[in-house]
Write a structure and sequence with these properties.
homodimer, about 25% strand, Molybdenum Cofactor Biosythetic Enzyme, Chain A, six-stranded mixed β-sheet, four-stranded antiparallel β-sheet, Alpha-Beta Plaits
Chain lengths: ~250, ~250
């Protein structure tokens, strides 16, 4: 119901996320980033450091959504296999990208640009580099896929570098109304408000605090006026039920 | 390379995750939980509150992995559609589960067990309840799919309830060796250690601190002896390179 904004998916690549060693924070950051551009994040997948998994996941997501953002697996070590997997997914060759190679070569003292570090200059044929302020090692962009680092600071710098070239949609706005009653108490009224405001997405998110259960009611949509109308309808419904509410 | 442990996937259901409103913490918790049981988490997907998306994602994951754990969408409000979507995925009917209905009815004061709250007793035919210590509203288990709440405290209690019935594998053990040099400096040696220890998974995870870049080298596997041998080989390789290391 959010209309014809562009769509996106995130693919997080990394055994360390699936093993529970590391908690992924990149997908949450990307979700907020895309939201601010008016791009609708529709799906996130976390896959292992396995070429077949990366290829299959990437091909499924890039066929389905306008854009795919990947994180992880573009460093110098043996477990960094994302670039090769992306080349395979696109059925293109891969080799040293002259500019990436030159950037990396200039970065290291003489003799320290070793074979493993050269791996970071391996870029699928036809891809454009994603240069960034945090790391000399670039990400890359091929077709509708943006391949980024897994280290959060580097990933964020790559997103900044990508942003100017992304299509912008109408940013989704939201209003959050908070109540100190459990959601079951107000669910019927909320359902009625949703039915009467079909162009707005209404979510109900229970929470628990020491003083008892509460609920956040969130209206979301691209039409800020309609979002406000729905929030007002929720507040009127709550008032009728004798439930105090506050806007967050 | 982790052998024949059982496999699992997590499906997080919720617009609030994709919009960036909420950062999912459940999948990380489940990853650690499954690791402690010797069950290999192979994939995580986050999908929206959309029936077709839930059905398609669930059918893909349950066909592929031994177990699927879902979180979110089993409350009383209009946006809680997981139970219906799961019934559709399994092509079974859905209705009030007598025991769930009785539990919920007893929970509420007279007159407060309203139509929306009754939605929480709607369980796909053939499913078994997941009763838990945190909430009267149950999750449920059908086929190889475990359907849990999205509220973290409730989800965790449901996992505890599920645990005794899960198949246990050999827990993966790991050793982490930390160095204060960038991963590119040691990548070639690390690659050699990986080749010589094919039964162990070796990961390299760069980090940044004020004093400069560092790397954590993690050996993982079900054979604790082999994991230790690989860690010792990494430490010997580092010593030969003149790189100090510490075990975490």
């Amino acid at each position: 119901m959010l209309g014809d904004n562009k769509t996106a998916a995130v693919m997080v690549i990394g055994d360390e996320i699936l093993s529970g060693r590391t908690q992924d924070s990149n997908s949450h950051y990307i979700a907020r980033f895309l939201g601010s551009l008016g791009i609708d994040l529709k799906e996130v997948r976390v896959v292992s450091d396995d070429e077949a998994e990366i290829v299959a996941g990437l091909n499924a997501l890039r066929a389905r959504y306008d854009m795919v953002f990947t994180t992880g697996g573009i460093g110098p070590t043996h477990d960094d296999i994302t670039a090769d997997a992306v080349a395979k997914a696109f059925d293109v060759g891969i080799g040293y990208h002259p500019e990436a190679y030159a950037l990396l070569e200039a970065r290291y003292p003489l003799g320290e640009f070793n074979e493993m570090r050269k791996r970071m200059a391996r870029i699928p044929h036809g891809a454009a580099l994603i240069k960034n302020s945090a790391s000399v090692a670039p990400g890359f962009h091929i077709g509708n896929v943006f391949v980024m680092a897994g280290v959060p600071a580097v990933m964020r710098a790559m997103l900044e570098a990508i942003a100017p070239g992304l299509p912008r949609g109408v940013e989704v706005t939201s209003v959050t109304v908070s109540v100190d009653v459990p959601e079951g108490r107000i669910a019927a009224g909320l359902s009625d408000v949703q039915k009467a405001n079909a162009g707005v997405s209404i979510g109900s998110y229970p929470f628990y605090q020491e003083s008892g259960p509460g609920t956040q009611l969130v209206t979301r949509g691209r039409d800020a006026g309609a979002v406000e109308v729905a929030a007002l309808a929720i507040e009127a419904m709550l008032k009728e039920l004798g439930v105090a509410s506050t806007r967050l």
